[in-house]
């Protein structure tokens, strides 16, 4: 079941206190919950539960990692 989440709703998926860790990139929401580097919802100063479209462009891996991540939905207005 695909989720449609607003930026405000996405914030609850911050990877903390048992919540799933989701991020949005270019309107697509990815599940980072089982990614070791994102345990606790944080990774190199970034926080799950946010739209990281701009930040991924500065990451060493750019968008190359996205193909490996489960897609769970779309970011909506």
UniProtKB/TrEMBL annotation:
Domain Cytochrome b5 heme-binding, first and last residues per copy: 5-76
InterPro entries reported in the protein's UniProt record: Cyt_B5-like_heme/steroid-bd (IPR001199), Cyt_B5-like_heme/steroid_sf (IPR036400)
SMART domains registered for this protein in UniProt: Cyt-b5
SUPFAM superfamilies reported for this sequence: Cytochrome b5-like heme/steroid binding domain (SSF55856)
A family per Pfam: Cyt-b5
Protein name: Cytochrome b5 heme-binding domain-containing protein
